[in-house]
Amino acid sequence: MPHQPPSDGLTLHDISVRFGGLTALDGVSLRVPPGRTVGVIGPNGAGKTTLFNVVCGFVAPTSGQLTLDGRPLRPRPHQLKKRGIARTLQGVGLFPSLTVLENVLVGESDRDRAEAALERCGAASYRDEKPASLPYAIRKRVALARALVSDPRLLLLDEPAGGLGVQEIEELGELITGLSCSVLLVEHHMDLVMTVCDEILVLDFGKPVAHGTPEEIRTDEAVADAYLGAAA
Ligand SMILES: Nc1ncnc2c1ncn2[C@@H]1O[C@H](COP(=O)(O)OP(=O)(O)OP(=O)(O)O)[C@@H](O)[C@H]1O
Ligand SMILES: [Mg+2]
């Protein structure tokens, strides 16, 4: 029988990142199991984007390893698709000279799938428009469609709710909840994280300070301390 790769999702093993004298991530271990949504939260400067960048291959860890379905993952930004990983970046990042549909075709050059991804993200009616003419929330939907069109096993989202209104965040939450792939969600917006995540990792000054279900995190003292400390 052919060997089936174990589908145990993405794992970060004891990842540390140092920028000169600054430790941005300090011994972070995390697993994103297949089909689950795992959130990473923490105050400003906690290391959330650094963690996201490590998984995307923008930042190489100073120490530690990544594995995807049991195999070592040394992510390179242009090779993510090959490993079944897609991402959206903080902000939007669409190509201004391309139409909405053409932007999604960058993610996967199959027209039917691009149309279906736009439909799924509620942006199909804007397919022939240029991004600059569209409201921010619609542009974010297009960016999500571009990530989803390749049917990733793992979707990485950095602050997808940034700049969105309450209603738009609710719709985004429903969309994320309906996804069948694994999701790693880096996000400031607590309500969204609490609603869509199966598990949450809390970082503070690069260190994991709590890890658990939304309910566990909501009542965790270390989490309250991290956020109150940041606000003080
Ligand atoms: N390329 C870099 N070079 C030097 N320091 C960096 C670099 N990227 C991030 N840092 C520092 O690492 C720490 C973690 O930053 P990071 O952007 O990961 O935090 P964050 O949790 O995403 O914060 P925010 O909520 O403000 O987006 C910060 O102190 C930041 O200044
Ligand atoms: Mg950030």
TrEMBL record:
Keyword terms, alphabetized: ATP-binding, Nucleotide-binding, Transport
GO molecular function: ATP binding; ATP hydrolysis activity
Domain of life: Bacteria
A Pfam cross-reference name: BCA_ABC_TP_C
Coiled-coil regions listed: none
CDD domains membership: ABC_Mj1267_LivG_branched (cd03219)
Location of the ABC transporter domain: 10-230
Cellular component terms (Gene Ontology): plasma membrane
InterPro entries (alphabetical): AAA+_ATPase, ABC_AA/LPS_Transport, ABC_transporter-like_ATP-bd, BCA_ABC_TP_C, P-loop_NTPase
Annotated PANTHER family: CONSERVED COMPONENT OF ABC TRANSPORTER FOR NATURAL AMINO ACIDS-RELATED
The name this protein goes by in its record: ABC transporter ATP-binding protein
Species assigned in the record: Winogradskya consettensis
